[in-house]
Design goal:
By secondary structure, the protein is α+β, with helices and mostly antiparallel strands. It contains four helices and four strands. The two termini are 71 Å apart. Keywords: Membrane, Signal, Transmembrane, Transmembrane helix.
């Protein structure tokens, strides 16, 4: 756009100087030419500054925006779910299945769920060692 504008301005100024055929004094001609050159310089400077402003304010779409990761909550077995369970190997500390299902913050590993037949019926629980192997703090 700047080159086209300068070309048009230059051709206009040449055309206007050719139209004036009346003889003029040299002092007036030099003053008019200098004033015209100064005016052209000022106009060119203004246009150039506007182009620079446009170049500076343009923004390119960002391809990658850094987003910090949210800290993951630790997989912690709730202390309230810890129970003593009688087994054929003696008393063991286990986490009750129903309590863990209600109060655990993360999905429970199904391979850690155990069942034991007692006098009072079938008891389901999660073994602490198995939970630890699957990334839980038990």
């Amino acid at each position: 756009m700047t080159r086209q504008f300068f070309a048009a301005l230059l051709s206009l100024s040449i055309a206007l100087t050719a139209v004036t055929t009346a003889p003029a004094r040299a002092d007036d001609d030099i003053a008019k030419v200098l004033a015209g050159l100064v005016a052209l310089g000022i106009i060119a400077k203004v246009i150039n500054d506007k182009d620079k402003d446009k170049r500076v304010t343009r923004s390119h779409p960002q391809t990658h925006v850094y987003k910090p990761h949210k800290p993951r909550r630790a997989k912690v077995a709730p202390q309230r779910c810890l129970r003593e369970q009688w087994t054929h190997r003696g008393v063991r500390n286990v986490y009750g299945a129903r309590c863990m299902k209600r109060h655990a913050q993360h999905a429970l590993p199904q391979n850690c769920k155990r069942e034991v037949e007692t006098r009072n019926g079938l008891r389901r629980f999660y073994a602490p060692n198995c939970l630890r192997r699957n990334g839980w703090r038990a």
